[in-house]
Amino acid sequence: MLTLLARDLKLQFRRGELLASSFVMGVLMLLAFNFSLDLSPDNVAALAPGILWVAVLFSAGLAAGHGFVGERENGCMDAIVASPLDRGSVYLAKFTVNLLLLLLFEAMLLPVFALFFELSVLPVLAPLALVLLLGSIGLAAVGTLFALVTVGGGGRDLTLPILLLPLEVPLLIASVKITRVVMAGGGFPWGDGWVRLLLGFDLLFVVAGWLAFEYVATD
Amino acid sequence: MTTVPFLYKTESLLMRVLPLPVTLGMLASLCAVFWWVPTERVQGPVQRIFYFHVPSAWCCFLAFGLASVTSAAYLWKHHRDWDNAARAAVETGMLFATAVLITGPIWARPIWGVWWTWDSRLTTMLVLWLIFAAYLLLRAFSGERDGGSSGARFAAVLAIVGTLDIPLIVFSTRLWRTVHPAVLKTSEGGSGLSDPRMITTLILCTLTFMIMFAWLWALGARSLRLDDQVALLEERGDRLAMATGSNTSTGEATV
Question: What is the ipTM of this complex?
Answer without folding.
Answer: 0.77
